[in-house]
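seq:
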Amino acid sequence: MSTKQALNPHLMSLDLLRGVAALCVVVMHWLDGNGSKAFHYSLLAVDFFFVLSGFVVSYAYSERLKAGMSVGEFMLLRVIRLYPMIVVGVVFGVVRYIFKDHFDPGSSHGPAWLTVRAVFNLLMIPSVMDGLRGDMFILNSALWSLFFELVAYLLYAVVLHRLSVVLLWVIVATSGAGVFAWLSDGFSGDPARAAGLFGFIGYPSGAVRVLFAFSLGVLAQKAFRSRKLALRLNGWVAGGLLLAFFALPLGATPALPAFLGILLVFPVIVIGCAGYAGRLALPGLARALGEVSYPVYVIHVPILWLLGGAIKVLRKAPGGGIGVPAIWFGVAFLPIIVALSYILFKAYDAPVRAAIAEQLRRRRAAAA
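struct:
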């Protein structure tokens, strides 16, 4: 059986993993907003996404790029995959700031401020006017990882797909030093260290994280294709392993185990699921998790801001306000995000991408 035949039936398992990771990120942000550091290792879900992207992109495009696909054509296909939901994520961010300016007496950003940020965010240009550390995409902070994802795509099309295994390991080793520094500072629990050069957020940490994890994904795909690492792992078992790992609280382990999780566990899980030949239970649920994973990730931050703001307004309403316990906010938040993401995928994201792809196909046919 060819690698393509072996992998394609089991992309559902990889999509399942993406869905589990995305939902863990949502849970982490809600808990963090309520003062809890449970699920804090879900910060590493982004690194898992990078590993998974490196694997899937390398599998799908390595031979096509070697056969002559242009960098421009490759990037166009990847932008089409990401951009429709990026637009939605920015729109929700704009709505959040309009809401905030209206109900919060201390908030006065104004139309000019909002327009400039919206343009920057829509063009996926980091908002350098808001500082070189946080707030790279101030309307929707989740976009920072998509910016680095696009950077990784460009690097892959220009350089990475041409490199030998040895050179890829050199990149992993050098960028891995930065990732270890990020984990040592950001996971220390010390606010002063977390605000350092390789703290939780910012350009240095984002750059080394994507280079490290995406290159690992490319290496994992090479190992899978060459059958040098033949593993079989059920998608639901792998999802449970990821859930247990991402549920760890801040300070649960020192930097080294977290680093080894990215370096070894994530690639092994991806290779194992890609090579799993058995029947996957609950295939409908697995498929749905994959479908909502990207919309969930893109919209969850501004929706969390909006719902949190709505709770504050309700509590300050005339007549003493309406008491809304935080636990009920959390119970409602996750189903709302998942339901809205599923609707967006079915009614907007998938149809828009299909329509764009069809237009490109017709143009190519007419030009042929």
